[in-house]
Amino acid sequence: MALWRPRSPKALVCPACDAALAPEVAGNAEPRCTGCGTVLWPVKVAGLWRRAAATLVDAVLLLFTAGPLAWLVAAAREEPSLLGGKTALEMLLRAFEVDVSTWLARAAPMLVMAGLYLGLFWHLSGRTPGQKLLHMRVVDGQGRRPHLVRTLVRVVATLAGALPGALGWLWIAVDLEKRAWHDWLAGTYVVRD
Prior knowledge:
There is one protein chain. The strands form two sheets. This protein has a two-stranded parallel ribbon with strand order 1-2. Strands 3-4 form a two-stranded antiparallel ribbon. The longest helix is centred in the first third of the chain and has 30 residues, at 48-77. It is elongated, with a radius of gyration of 20 Å. It is built from seven helices and four strands; from the N terminus they run ββααααβαααβ. The two termini are 16 Å apart. α1 packs across α3 (100-124) and α3 (100-124) packs antiparallel against α5. The chain is mainly alpha-helical.
């Protein structure tokens, strides 16, 4: 069974064989690809706001689980504060003086925990707790939860998509299929249940 969006402004193709699908397929009781005969499964993809709400739920969960761990690692290293300043303006200006590699080194424990959190949930159940709360799931082009390689690609691309001003994530707002960069790279979709 393959995923298929019944109302897309783009030309419809079969996710299994990439054959062009005629619009009449949408009216069939059991839509099938005319090229390979695969049964097509109509879905509704999750949009930006629903996905952002699920990400917020997951971020709060990570804050209370991985946050203390990251704080303990930083305390064990006895590193000085990155933004030591008396006023908010001083702290903001110092933030621009700090090297990107220093920021990444400080964020490494949190990034590792976030990667494990996302990867385990996506691979084992196809959704994180935030996605489960908002009735969404991550699937591949065949409608199954992503296998290990897709999950690893998706996790790395998700974390990297946050670096250039979250453009990788915000791509959902302009993409016709409502897919972020990490969805395109991993070959996944986020669909509503």
